[in-house]
Amino acid sequence: MMKINKLSFLLAFVVLAAFTLERAVPALNIKGMNKSRWGSFNEIVEQNNFLLKQLLENAANNKTALPNSAIDKVGKFYRVFMDTLKRESQGISPVMPYLNQINSITTKEQLIQTISNFHKMGFRCLFNFYVGQDNKNSSSYIVNMGQGGLGLPDKDNYLKNDEKSLKTKKAYLE
Questions:
Q1: Under a CB-based contact definition with an 8 Å cutoff, are residues 33 and 27 in contact?
Q2: Dihedral sign, CA of 13, 14, 15, 20?
Q3: Measured between alpha carbons, how far is residue 69 from residues 4, 75, 87 in Å?
């Protein structure tokens, strides 16, 4: 029996987010139209997304899945995620406990503890770790660390105070 873990749910969430975005922005459904390049790997991603969507929809529509089985859990997760009316009515209330926790940070120790707790829950904040191929030795895998949590593409968007940068920051915060 297949086990569903946090990584599986995260993968499903990412896939669902991609499909939701495609529905929200119809132009994204035209192959390569919104891309600076399009190649065979993009085709593979498209095919994988199509297959994953089929799997998720089949799980969501499966009326005979055993309670708490992998199919039942994935199906419930997909149905909950796709319930856009409920999501719209809830607004940000599901994330308010996390926002309140962030808002209550007053010391470095609380910041470190909050970041640690968020990482344990799978929230990538400030930085993230992953295992990947070594760029200098492709036959070796190493632990990599990267920044996370920044939404603007360049540090200058945060640090510059010229008119364009201030306008960008203001629009980003709205």
A1: yes
A2: positive
A3: 9, 10, 25
